[in-house]
Amino acid sequence: DTAVSQTPKYLVTQMGNDKSIKCEQNLGHDTMYWYKQDSKKFLKIMFSYNNKELIINETVPNRFSPKSPDKAHLNLHINSLELGDSAVYFCASSQDQGYQPQHFGDGTRLSIL
Amino acid sequence: GDSVTQMEGPVTLSEEAFLTINCTYTATGYPSLFWYVQYPGEGLQLLLKATKADDKGSNKGFEATYRKETTSFHLEKGSVQVSDSAVYFCALSNTGFQKLVFGTGTRLLVSP
After folding, report:
1. Between A99 and A20, whose confidence is greater?
2. SS3 A88
3. Is the CB of B104 less than 8 angstroms away from the CB of A42?
4. Helix or strand run (H / E) with residue A72
5. What local confidence, expressed as pLDDT, does residue B29 receive?
6. CA distance A9 to A20
7. A19-25 vs A31-37, strand pairing mode
8. pLDDT, tens digit, for every residue of B54-89?
9. Considering CB atoms only, which of A40, A43, A58 is closest to B102?
10. Is there a contact between A70 and A52 (Cβ–Cβ < 8 Å)?
11. Which of residues 40-59 of B touch A (CB under 8 A)?
């Protein structure tokens, strides 16, 4: 059973398009996250949601809009895609404690043409 | 702000060699410390963690000790295998902040 699942695994699209990435966790966790991993493997948090409420928004352009319909899902919508958005996006989840380890999905590789 | 510094890679070893990957951190308060591993084409997996000073995290032969006096959390393994080839990330999570701050990752390549 997959704990944190993301779809799609690969996403190739053109500049200016709008796209969404979906994430679901079946661990019963209260908190979900989106991270961006650039071409040099550097990982940086983008957003964190706790029980559907936005907790962290790390200076991400407002073209990126997370949506959490329930605490098991956290989707990421990106408007007007730019070349610099090419990266691997990881979803993660954890229990609602700052020290609890996070469980990651396998990532979505976004390539902008 | 909080930050994590890892040694640059790649680290190239022969099978059964001893591994050390250095990690130091800067943080206010009392963070928890983690090592995550990323195998090719996969997401990150928690390898081990330590939540307070002098704690030792261990898993699959890997160990790291939380050293508050040197603000370090170095990863060690006595005898690496080819299957250990991956990217290793040191990370911290601080009080009240529900996010991980990652180091830049260190690629480990183990040859037979």
Report:
1. A20
2. strand
3. yes
4. none
5. 81
6. 12
7. unpaired
8. 999 999 999 999 999 999 999 999 999 999 999 999
9. A43
10. yes
11. 41-46, 49, 51
